[in-house]
Amino acid sequence: MTIIIIFILISAGIFSILSSVLKLPPYSATQRLRGVAGKTKMTETLNQRLLLPVMKLVAPFIRLDDFKERRMKIKLERAGIIFTPKEYYARAVVMAAGTAIIGTLAAVAIMPSMAVVVCILAVIVYFHFFGEVNDRLKEKDELIESELPKFIRAIVQGLKTEKDVIKLLESYSTIAGKGLQYDIEVLVLDLKSGNFENAMLDFDKRVGNAYMSRLTKALIAVNRGDNQEAALNHLLSDMSLLSHETMQRELNKRPGRVKMMVIPIVVIGIFTLFYVVGVNLFNSLGGIM
What we know:
It is built from twelve helices and no strands. It is mainly alpha-helical. Helix 2 packs across helix 4 (85-110), helix 4 runs antiparallel to helix 5 (115-130) and helix 7 (165-173) runs antiparallel to helix 8.
């Protein structure tokens, strides 16, 4: 019986390894996809009926100085989080307090010694929700940085034949990626309805990237009639370096390829393992029968 259990566990482990190497979809993928809609509705219902009302009650009691509140407001707007700074802090407090209360009650009823673990878990929950804005901004900055070379090249090269910046931006917005599409659309609307310089400065503030700051300053100078050819060409050369660095980082994130000589060794090892386990299994079954 022990050999049968070991054989099943080894088979399951080998199947998992091969599925990961061959990038096969898990068996439960279809079930998870079917349940996404229901889980999403359930999460939204809990947020609307339970979390948000409590968060609204707690928010007025959060004390923030003006500088911290303004800074957090800018970060939330950039990250696309619709909460006010006080509501954002209140959500982290409410989630941590809820975890502490529910966990403590469960620990007292089942295992009182787990109360310390529950407190640690509550702290982790607090920092998880408090750090969401930074996680989103980091993800957005990575998307922007990966798209930045393409965007700056399109604008700088386009200026050689088209002096209308709005037309260039509208043309690029049709092929823009997730990192810059929203900000470019807002910039186009601001340029059409307001002052050119203010619109570019607001765009620079939203994106928050040093290379983009150089581009916006150059575009403002071009709009004033100044010659910015040297600055724009220097920016283009920097984009070549940035593109290479971004590509190198992406390659470093990917797992190294398995050498071809390792594959036969793995196959031989698997067959040897199955042979040994199989022989012992049949011998055990023969002895039982």
